[in-house]
TrEMBL record:
<dbReference type="GO" id="GO:0015966">
    <property type="term" value="P:diadenosine tetraphosphate biosynthetic process"/>
</dbReference>
<keyword id="KW-0547">Nucleotide-binding</keyword>
<comment type="subunit">
    <text>Homodimer.</text>
</comment>
<feature type="binding site">
    <location>
        <begin position="374"/>
        <end position="378"/>
    </location>
    <ligand>
        <name>substrate</name>
    </ligand>
</feature>
<feature type="binding site">
    <location>
        <position position="103"/>
    </location>
    <ligand>
        <name>substrate</name>
    </ligand>
</feature>
<dbReference type="GO" id="GO:0005524">
    <property type="term" value="F:ATP binding"/>
</dbReference>
<dbReference type="InterPro" id="IPR045864">
    <property type="entry name" value="aa-tRNA-synth_II/BPL/LPL"/>
</dbReference>
<dbReference type="GO" id="GO:0004820">
    <property type="term" value="F:glycine-tRNA ligase activity"/>
</dbReference>
<comment type="similarity">
    <text>Belongs to the class-II aminoacyl-tRNA synthetase family.</text>
</comment>
<feature type="binding site">
    <location>
        <begin position="252"/>
        <end position="254"/>
    </location>
    <ligand>
        <name>ATP</name>
    </ligand>
</feature>
<dbReference type="GO" id="GO:0004081">
    <property type="term" value="F:bis(5'-nucleosyl)-tetraphosphatase (asymmetrical) activity"/>
</dbReference>
<dbReference type="GO" id="GO:0005737">
    <property type="term" value="C:cytoplasm"/>
</dbReference>
<keyword id="KW-0963">Cytoplasm</keyword>
<feature type="domain" description="Aminoacyl-transfer RNA synthetases class-II family profile">
    <location>
        <begin position="162"/>
        <end position="420"/>
    </location>
</feature>
<dbReference type="InterPro" id="IPR027031">
    <property type="entry name" value="Gly-tRNA_synthase/POLG2"/>
</dbReference>
<dbReference type="InterPro" id="IPR004154">
    <property type="entry name" value="Anticodon-bd"/>
</dbReference>
<feature type="binding site">
    <location>
        <position position="220"/>
    </location>
    <ligand>
        <name>substrate</name>
    </ligand>
</feature>
Amino acid sequence: MAKNNDQDQFKKVLSHAKEYGYVFQSSEIYDGLSAVYDYGQNGVELKKNIREYWWQAMTQLNQDIVGIDTAIFMHPTVWKASGHVDAFNDPLIDNKDSKKRYRADVLVEDYCEKHLQKANKEIAKAAKRFGEDFDAKMYAETNPRVMGYMKKATEPTARLAQLLEAEDLEGVKALIEELEIADPDTGSKNWTDVRQFNLMFGTKIGASADTATDLFLRPETAQGIFVNFLNVQKSGRMKIPFGIAQTGKAFRNEIVARQFIFRQREFEQMEMQYFVKPGTELKWFEIWKEKRMAWHRSLGMGDENYRFHDHEKMAHYANAATDIEFDFPFGFKELEGIHSRTDFDLKAHEEHSGKKLQFFDHEDNKSYVPYVLETSIGLDRMFLAVFSNSLVDEKLDGGGERTVLKLPAVLAPVKAAILPLLKKDGLPEIANEIVDELKWSMNVAYEEKDSIGKRYARHDLNGTPYCVTIDHDTKEDHAVTVRDRDTMTQERVAIKDLKSYLESRVSMSEWLRKI
C-alpha cells in the first residue's frame, strides 16, 4: 500500500469503513457532529478485540500489573493538581484567508516530516543506483542534498521545542513565517498570532444551577490511576515495581480535529502506569519501550511501519519521553506515548489532597513516593492504524485485481465464514451444525446467498480471515474446504479437526505467544 501522505488511500479507508459497517459519522442523519464518530457492527468487534489484545498482554502476561476502571467524573481539584487546569493547552493559529484553524506545532512538525521523507527518497534512489555496497549512513552524512533536507527536518523541531518551553508564542509565529509554511488547503501564508487554548470540556453536577459544582470531563484516564494508587497497592498487597492498567473514554475539545478517527473529541485510551523505585525509572523506561514495540510487532503489520520518536520538548513532569509512531496514509504520526513521569503526579496529589501517597519499602525500611513509567495508546488511533494498513489492492497471478482487508486474524470481527456451496441437498444443515459448534469459541458468520466466488470476495472485503465451504464431498468424507483470505490457498480439513485448526490461527492466546 502506498504511504507518505497518500490522500487517495485515505479516502478509500474512509469509504470502506462506512460501507462495511466499521465506522459511521455520529448523528449522520442530522449532518453529523464534527470529530465525533460511531463504531458500526464490525467496528465495535474490531475495537473490542484490539482492547482485549492490549488488556490480556498487560494484565495476564504480567503478574505485577492489575486493572482498574475509574469514573469519568472526578473531583475538580484532581485537574488542578495534575496541571490540566493551568497547562493543558494547544498553540493554535488561524489563516486569515482560508479562515481555517491549525495547531501551530503540528504545522511545523508536518513541515519537518515532508523534508525527512524527501531525504529518505533520495537515500532510497541512491541505494538502487549503487547496489549492495551502498552505505546509507555515510551517504546521508555527505550528500549535500540529503544533508539539506535533514537540516530542514530536524532544526525547526528543536527550535519549536525551545519556543514552546519559553511560552514564546510570537516566536512560534515567526518560525512559521520564516519557514514559509502555507495553509495546507489553500497555500495562503497570511497567519494570525498564535494563542493557547485549553482543551478540557467543562460540565456541572448538581440538582440546580445555584448549587451545581463545576466539573470537567476527564481529558485522560491516568489521573484515575494515580488517585487510586494506595487503594490498589494496599488491597492487592502490591510490591514495587507494579503497574495499574485502565481503558476508558476521555474527552478533549480538539479545535483542530481532522484525519478521521485519528483525532477526536471523544475517544478511548489504553493506559498503564508502572510504579518503580526512584533511581530505576530510566532502566524501566527502556524496558517498556521494548515491551510495547514487541506488542505492536506481534500483529505482523510490518516492522518498517513503526519508529521511535524521542521528544524534543518534554512535559513538565517527565525526565524521558518517546513516541511509537506509525506510518498512517498521511505519514508517520504518534500512536503510543511512553513517558517517565518521575514522582510529579503522586506528589502533586499529596500536596492538594493532604494525604500521603507513599510506599513503605521493607527492604530499605523507609517510605518514598514512587516514580512512574507510563505507556499510553489511543484505541481509536490503533483502530485506524490496523484498518488503514490492512486495506490493500492486489494484482492476482491471472492478471486480475482484488481489494482485501487483511486484518490480523486475532483482531478480525468475524474469524470464519461458514458457507454451504448450495442451499439444498442437506448442505445448509451441515453448515449450521458447524456454526453451532464454533460459536462457543469464536465469532463466525453463516452465509448462503450468491455464488461461492462472490461470497469469498465479500468476506475478503470484510476482513474475514477464513472461509469454510461445505460441499457435496462433505457428506462422504466429513471434511470441509478452508480458504485462507491472504493467500487464497485452500485446504481440506476434517470437521472434527476444524475447531482446533481455526483456533490455532485466530485465538488470542496463540497470538500473545508471539510477543
